Amino acid sequence: MAVLIALAILLAFVVVLLAKTVQIVPQARAGIVERFGKYQQTLDAGLKIIVPFIDNVRYRIDLREQVVSFPPQPVITEDNLVVSIDTVIYFQVTDPVAATYEIANYIQAVEQLTMTSLRNIVGGMDLEETLTSRDEINTRLRGVLDEATGKWGIRVNRVELKGIDPPPSIKDSMEKQMRADRDKRAAILTAEGQRQSAILSAEGMKQSAILTAEGDRESAILRAQADRESQILKAQGEGQAIQTVFQAIHDGQPDQSLLAYQYLQMMPKIAEGDANKVWIVPSEIGRALEGLGSTMSEMSGIPKDLPGPRTRVDMGSTSPEVPSVDASKKAANDAVQAAIREAEEAANPGRARKAQSGTGDEPGGDTGAVPPPSQP
């Protein structure tokens, strides 16, 4: 039994001895070894052997980059406004021995140094500059911290201002100022938009007016040209029509009987007016027609001598058959006599019946007979 107890004690001593002798240091760590309370060596990562019960691993330092966030701290700006600023520090231990023996608590030291340096930097800026100069504050603060923590074996890689909170009253004023500034910019943009719209509208109206005026001018020119060509064609047509009619008259060789017949044809149309209530045909109608025919025969365009027209008008490929002059004269005389009798009967129906019965002859009276017009 005593042997077993001795073996157990020996085994426990061996285990403790091994535990004191063999040390395992993790990656990115450093072990500070002290011998009788004095610094002996620094253990790197891996399996290390030390003297048991003499050497002791007092500290294990993390060599990785560390991130520490500090709570908000009040800072007074140059214009005497208190703002709360919270910071974030990124640092790394480069010398484990210095970080162990040069400073008791390097994290707390970095925090206090950050606060004092931040008050010093922000104290020379006003509120607006503080809010808009974060990069400048970060750069200056990092330079101060890196210089101060170098002897502690610490390197400050980056400093960030997490937030800058002004007082509530200042926040309200800033919001009002920002709102007013945005309203001003909105009004300016609206005015610029309206101006651009008015300019574009005016330019559009100008172009429209120019195009309308050009269209009216071209339309007027085209209408004038069309009117001119229409008048020219109309005048040419009237001239050809007059020449054609004049040529037909000369080709027909009119005489006084034909003119008298045309006059008799126009007499009913003269009597068609509303004001012509009574229309009397005189008994001397034959003499009047004879005088009319003799007068019109002397007019220009109906000469007594018909040698033929000097200007011929193309009447077509075939010429119409014209009856002989004697037959035309006879037919015209017969038509004139018939028209005279019809006119006398229409003017005096009773007298016409007495003339037919043979009892209408009176001494010195007019029988209604009209001598035929003289032949040309």
Would you kindly provide a brief summary of this structure?
The protein has 376 residues and is an alpha+beta fold.
CATH class of the largest domain: Alpha Beta
Number of strands: 9
Low-confidence stretches: 299-304, 315-325, 359-376
**What separation lies between the terminal Cα atoms?**
193 Å
| Category from helices, strands and their pairing | alpha+beta
Give the count of helical stretches.
10
Spell out the CATH superfamily of the largest domain.
Answer: Band 7 domain
The shape is rod-shaped
Helix content: 55-70%
> Remind me, CATH topology of the largest domain?
Tetrahydropterin Synthase, Chain A
- Mean pLDDT over the residues: 77
Domain module tally:
4
**Percent of residues in beta strands:** 15-25%
Q: Please summarize the sheet with the most strands.
A: 4 strands, antiparallel
Organism: Nocardioides aquaticus
Keywords: Membrane, Transmembrane, Transmembrane helix
Pfam family, one: Band_7
Main location: membrane
Q: What are the main properties of this structure?
A:
376 residues, alpha+beta, Tetrahydropterin Synthase, Chain A, 4 domains, 10 helices, transmembrane helix, Band 7 domain-containing protein
